[in-house]
Structure formats: C-alpha cells, structure tokens
Amino acid sequence: MSKNRAPANNKGQKRRMRIFMFFVLLFSIWTGYTAYLQSGLLTEKEEQLKQLQAASAAEQKLQAELAYKANRLNDKEYLAELARKQWYLTRPGEIIYILPEQK
After folding, report:
1. What does the alpha-carbon distance between residue 73 and residue 89 come to, in Å, rounded to a whole number?
2. Type and span of the H or E element at 93
3. In sequence order, which ranges of 1-103 are alpha helices (DSSP H)?
4. How far, in Å, CA of 59 to CA of 20, rounded?
5. What is residue 1's predicted lDDT score, i.e. its pLDDT?
6. CB proximity list for 88: less than 8 A, separation 6 or greater
7. pLDDT-derived band of residue 2, with 50, 70 and 90 as boundaries?
8. How far apart are CA 29 and CA 35, in angstroms?
C-alpha cells in the first residue's frame, strides 16, 4: 500500500511546488514593475529638487545683496552720494550742469 500512495503524494507535492513557483514568479514580476515605476518617480523628484535648490541659491544671493544694500543705507556718505545722483542735490557752493542726452 505504501508504494501506491507514494506516486500520488509525489504528484501532489509537484503540483504544490508549481503553484508556489507561480506565485513567486508573479510576486517577482510585481516587485520589478513597482521598482521600475518608483525609479521613474525618483528621477523626476531629483530633477525637481535640483531646480528648487538652484532657485533657493538664487534667492539667497538676492537676499544677501539686499541686506548689503540695506546696510549701506546706514552710511551717511553713501546716502549723500545717492541723493546727489538720483535727485541732483548739491553741497553748498556746487553747481550742477545737466547735459542733454546724446542719441
């Protein structure tokens, strides 16, 4: 009797092994597909990060320039120079000559 049961048991074991391998294959395909999609998203996010870092660097540079200009406004000599250039203010005894613009 044990000889009769062995082939049937062997067939069942092979069937279970095939089913198990089928699910392993499906899981591997699903994992590969998910990894492929994630790599595309990761590349896109890295590009966005680079763009945002470049924009941040530009904004920080602008902020530093504005802070420098604001700091210079505390200097009386710089304020006098600005007033003379922009509003044509003069010191006592100075005469301003305005030349016509050349085309």
Report:
1. 17
2. none
3. 2-72, 76-87
4. 57
5. 45
6. 96, 98
7. very low
8. 10
C-alpha span between 43 and 13 (Å, rounded):
45
Token pair in block for residue 64? 């530093």
pTM of the complete model beyond 0.70: no
Q: Check: CB of residue 71 under 8 Å from CB of residue 65.
A: no
Tokens of 54: 């470049």
| Torsion region of 88: left, alpha or beta (phi above 0 gives left; psi -120 to 50 gives alpha) | left
Tokens of 90: 């003069």
Question: For residue 96, what pLDDT band results from cuts at 50, 70 and 90?
Answer: confident
DSSP tag of 103? -
* 40-88 pLDDT per residue, tens: 999 999 999 999 999 999 999 999 999 999 999 999 999 988 888 888 8
Which residue is associated with the tokens 């062995």? 6
Cα 46 to Cα 33: distance, rounded to the nearest angstrom: 20
C-alpha span between 81 and 90 (Å, rounded)? 10
